[in-house]
UniProtKB/TrEMBL annotation:
Identification of the protein by name: Extradiol ring-cleavage dioxygenase LigAB LigA subunit domain-containing protein
UniProt cross-references to InterPro entries, sorted A to Z: LigA_sf (IPR036622), Xdiol_dOase_LigA (IPR011986)
Entries under Pfam families matching the protein: LigA
Coiled coil, from the record: none
Domain Extradiol ring-cleavage dioxygenase LigAB LigA subunit: 13-76
Organism: Nonomuraea antimicrobica
């Protein structure tokens, strides 16, 4: 299931890998996201999903699931406790959509 949508040729995969390993690129992404996005041959859908922090859409477009979590960490920072950090919760909210509230209610935190 996790790799059902994965498309290795999706350029967002390259972008996230580069952001992970290139400190200068990551710093520029934090201050001028649009200029970094312009350097990659992304589709309009990819750009919009990145801007909107729509991780579910990125997953459906073909971003590798591992890189989804990496992008969330890069965008929102690292977390306080496993599974409760802002990046983790943003990722879960985006992936679950309308099912998010029910998921949270059933977590028992």
């Amino acid at each position: 299931m996790a790799l059902d949508y994965f498309r290795p040729q999706l350029r967002t995969n390259d972008l996230v890998q580069d952001l992970k390993w290139n400190d200068d690129l990551r710093a520029r992404f934090e201050t001028d996201e649009e200029s970094v996005l312009a350097e990659y041959p992304l589709t309009g859908e990819e750009r919009e999903a990145i801007r909107d922090r729509d991780f579910r859409r990125l997953y459906e477009l073909g971003l590798h699931p591992y890189l989804l979590s990496q992008l969330a960490r890069l965008v929102y920072g690292t977390g306080e406790k496993a599974g409760t950090s802002a990046p983790a919760m943003a990722l879960i909210r985006s992936l679950l959509g309308d099912e998010y509230d029910q998921y949270m209610a059933n977590r028992g935190d």
